[in-house]
Amino acid sequence: MQIWVDADACPTLIKEILYRAANRTKTTTTLVANQPLTTPPSLYIKRVQVGAGFDVADNYIVQHVVNGDLVITADIPLADAVVQKGSTALNPRGELYSEDNIKSRLSLRNLNEELRSGGIMTGGPGKLGPREVQAFANCLDRFLTRG
To answer: How far apart are CA 126 and CA 53, in angstroms?
Structure first.
């Protein structure tokens, strides 16, 4: 099992939690981004820089993820593709996506996108706060220590 991170939009605080978890649990954690990344030196932390373009990082993750891996992403379509491959996705706010909930989350995301494009709804999720960061850390820990 390894962790894949959709790193372009992943908050720094979440990356720091992932770095500590990778080293503590000796879990390979690969950050994938369109831009250069700086990561701490570690046998367990890797980075991949993909070319520029729409969904290039997402496509890389989907091509390389295997059953049982964990993907960190706030991108619902990426989470859906990951779940379809037998993996699990976790967003930076601590919500775990699985076969049980991904289709409803994808439908809600599509509805919200339609409302935003029609001017009915504006904005997106609020700023990441301490409660969400703690929820992420707790969920990650439960996933990594499950027996």
So the answer is: 26
